[in-house]
Write a structure and sequence with these properties.
Strand content: under 5%
Number of domains: 2
Radius of gyration: 25 Å
CATH superfamily of the largest domain: MetI-like
Structural class: mainly alpha
CATH class of the largest domain: Mainly Alpha
Distance between the termini: 47 Å
CATH topology of the largest domain: MetI-like fold
Helix content: over 70%
């Protein structure tokens, strides 16, 4: 065997060992991430006396917790509220962030960089610091315990503007100039030419916004008062605080399982768009 062949075999062995180690680490990490979710789903089917059992697969299963959850809580109302808030927020963010990203990417005007830096700087401010001014505004405008009160802080996002601007800069300027020469106005150019070319970014923005709005907890907890206005995370939190017996833990797991099902469905359907949109962010 020549020296070159031996060196090649040695490199292949090293690559194989490294690949095995990487997949092992990733497998262990995946198990650590998935196991709590599996335990939650399994516990929702356990009998009350088996809730604290260490057996992953129970000897007997029941769906009574699901029926009891709908009887004892307004779970359908929580889902409806979360769905309405998430959908309106997603549509608003998709519209306004796309327009803002297009303007910042395709137009030149005084102070553009300063405005963009100011928008990005808002991402550095913790949400907890904004809650007090948000609540004061909600009280003065009588938005407490209303849909608009839950919605207004998330109708635009700095991350969405950044994401859309990065993608809008990739749209060929010659294509836009040709559309202007043909007499198209800027609205038609943006929606009929630019937006279709940045569809992965828009899909990613919509999906991430929907997931974030669905899981929002702190602000809906503060701005809602009546049980009819609660969203899923807040409703589950109140419900879990009222459970005192062992069967209550199974009910909590049941509510949590049902609350994540829409998110799993959305991710499974649009996971390619999420990965592609994030992977292409910032590329020119």
């Amino acid at each position: 065997m020549s020296v070159t062949a031996a060196a090649s075999c040695s490199r292949l062995r090293r690559r194989h060992i490294i690949s095995v180690l990487l997949y092992t680490v990733l497998g262990v990490g995946a198990i650590g991430m998935v196991f709590p979710f599996v335990w939650m789903v399994v516990t929702s089917f356990k009998l009350p006396q088996d809730v604290f059992s260490l057996q992953l697969i129970p000897k007997a299963a029941t769906i009574s917790h699901y029926a009891a959850l709908f009887e004892r809580t307004p779970f359908i109302g929580w889902v409806t509220n979360s769905f309405i808030v998430a959908c309106i927020t997603t549509i608003s963010v998709a519209l306004f962030d796309t327009v803002a990203g297009y303007i910042l990417a395709q137009f030149s005007f005084h102070g553009k960089q300063l405005i963009f830096i100011a928008i990005l700087s808002t991402m550095m401010v913790p949400t907890e610091m904004l809650i007090i001014p948000w609540y004061i505004a909600s009280v003065k405008l009588e938005w407490v315990d209303t849909y608009i009160g839950i919605l207004f802080p998330g109708l635009m996002s700095a991350f969405g503007i950044f994401l859309m601007k990065q993608f809008m800069e990739q749209v060929p300027q010659d294509l836009l100039d040709a559309a202007r020469i043909d007499g198209m106005n800027e609205w038609n150019i943006m929606f009929r030419i630019a937006v279709p070319l940045v569809r992965p970014a828009l899909a990613t923005l919509c999906i991430l916004t929907f997931l974030s709005s669905w899981n929002a907890f702190i602000w809906p907890l503060i701005v809602t008062q009546s049980p009819e206005q609660l969203t899923i995370p807040v409703g589950i939190a109140f419900f879990s605080s009222e459970q005192k017996d062992i069967s209550g833990w199974a009910m909590i797991m049941t509510a949590a399982t049902l609350s994540v099902l829409p998110l799993i469905i959305v991710f499974l359907i649009f996971q390619k768009q999420i990965i592609r949109g994030i992977a292409l962010t910032g590329l020119k």
